[in-house]
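From the pipeline queue, job 12 of 40. The input is one protein chain; the requested action is below.

Action: predict structure.
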Amino acid sequence: GTPTMGGILILGAILVSNFLWADITNLYILICVFVTLWLGITGFIDDYAKQLKKRSKGLGIRAKLFSQVILGLLVGAFLFLNPRVSTQLDMPFLKHLQFELGIFYILLVTLVICGSSNAVNLTDGLDGLAIGIVVMVALSFSVLSYIAGHIKFSQYLFIPYIEGAGELAIFCASILGAGLGFLWYNCYPASIFMGDVGSLPLGGALATVAILIKKELLLVIVGGIFVAEAISVILQVGSYRMRKKRIFKIAPLHHHLQFIGWQECKVIVRFWIIAALLALLTIITLKIR
C-alpha cells in the first residue's frame, strides 16, 4: 500500500532548483538536464506499466537497456564531436597519467551512464538506502565540480581545468537538496518509494557529472556501494547460468545480508557509513595527487 513513483518529486525539485539558480545556458547543465529527463521518462514508462497496467516486468529489461544505450551513444557522440571536450581518461591519484581514448570515448560514456543508472536502480531495494547514498555522492561531486571549474584550485591540485564546469556544483547541490527532502519520507519505514522514475535518472545524472568533470574512474570509488550491488547481481546471474549454482542467497547484496539475518535498518545504516567513508576518500584523492 506504500505509494511509489516518488521520483517525480525528486526530478521536479532538481529541475526547478536548476531553473532558479543555475545558468541554464551552460552546456554542461543542459546535458545533465537532458540525461535526467530522458531517463526520468524511461523510468516513468516502466513504473506506469508496473503500477497501472499491472505488467510485472514493466517496460522490460531489454527496452530499458536499449533506451540507456541510445542515450549513452548520443551523449558520447555529442561530447566526442565537441572540440571543447577532452576525450582523455584521467587517472585518480596520479598527476600526469592520462589515456587518449579517441573514438572509444563514446563507448566509455555509454558504459558509465548505463552502468550507473542500473546500479542505483538495483540498490533501491530498502527504505532510504539508495537515496541516502546518492546524497553523499552528490555532495562529493559538488565539491569536485566546483574545483574543476575554478582555474586556481584546479591548477593547485593538478586536476584538469574545465571551463564552465563549476556550474555543475549547483546541479549536484540540487540533487543533494532534493535527495534530503525525499529521504525525510523515504527513511525506514518508508512513506513513499522513488521507483524507477527516480533511481534511473539519479544514477544517470551522477554518471554524466562524472564524465563532464573527467572523474569517471572516481565514480567507481565514491559509488562503491552501487558497484558492489551491481557486481553481486552480475555474479549471481553468471554463476547460475554457467554452473546452476548461486553465489549469494539472493541478489542484490543488501537482500543477501537480510537473508542471513541482518536487520533492514542495520544494512541501511552500515551501507550509509561505508558510502560516507568512500565519499571522504574521493575528496581526499585531490590532495593525494
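Job complete. The chain is about 70% helix and 0% strand.
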